[in-house]
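Ticket #4471: structure export looks truncated?
Reporter: QA, pipeline team
Priority: medium

Steps to reproduce: submit the single chain below to the structure queue and open the exported record.
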Amino acid sequence: MSIVIKNLCKSYKGNLVLDNLNLEIKQGSLFGLLGPNGAGKTTLVSILNFLVPKDSGTALIDNMDLDKEENKIKSICSIVPQTYAFYPKLTAFENLEFFGSLYGLRKEALKKRIEYCIEVTSLEKYINKQAHTFSGGLKRRLNIAIGLLNSPKILYLDEPTVGIDPQSRKYILNVIKKINEKEKTTIIYTSHYMEEVEFLCDEIAILDKSKIILQEKKENLLHKNSIIKIKLLDEVIEVDTKDGFDNFTKMIAKLEKENKRIENIDFGYKNLEDMFLNLTKQDLRD
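Actual output as written to the record:
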C-alpha cells in the first residue's frame, strides 16, 4: 500500500511544523523516517493516522484520499506509538482480546488473530500475566502485538525500541523485518538509532526544519559512503572505493604527475549517522 503526500502543511500557534512537504512511500517498503527533535516526524505520522488535522495539502493512502475515506484508511493502517498503549492491570491476553474487539474481530477470527500476534512476538509464556509486571522489552513486544491485530497493510512504528535491553532490541528488529518480508506490510519506521534504520530500511528520508531534505534508497546512500571527492581548482573528481582504494591511489598519482593541485579531499560519510549529522548539522535540538 503506497503513500503519496503533496504540499502538506501544518502549523502550531503560528509555528510552521510541516512546510509544503512532499513524500512518496512505495508499497511494501520498510521506510525509515529520520529527523532531529522537533523536525515534524510525529506530526506527520499523527496526521496520517487522523490524530491531528492538517492545514492544507493532500495525502493518498493506497489511492484513497485522507480527507474523504477516513474509515477505509483506518481499516488498513495501524500505529505502534512510542508510549505504551495497553492497560497495565490487564493480562497480555486480555489486552489483545479487548483491542481486537475494538477492531470488530469476533470469536474465531479474533482467536486466530490473537494466536498469530502472540506467536510473532513470542509472548506465549507471558500471555496470562499482567502487563505491568513485564520488562521493558516485553512491553514493547505487547505494543507491537496489539498493533498487528487488524492485519494492517500499513504499519507505523514510532521509536519501538526505546529503553530496552540489547537482546530485546535485536529480537524486535528481526520481528519487524519478518513482518515486512512475509506479510508484505508497508512499514514506516521512525527512530533516533541510526544503526537500526541502516539495518532495517530499504529507503530513507530525513525530515528537518519542516521539510524533507533527503530521500533515497539505502543502497544509494551506502554507495555514497564509498565515494571520495577530490577537489581541484576548477573541477571535482569522484572516485568509487567500494572495492578498495586502488582507484584512489592511482588517481592521486595521475594528478601529481600532471602537476594538478588538489584543494581538498572529501572522504564521504562513515555511516548513516555521520551523514545525518552532516545534513542536519550538530547543534542541539531541545
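Status: closed, not a bug. The export was complete when the record was re-opened. Leaving a note from the reviewer for reference: The first strand starts at residue 3 and ends at 12.
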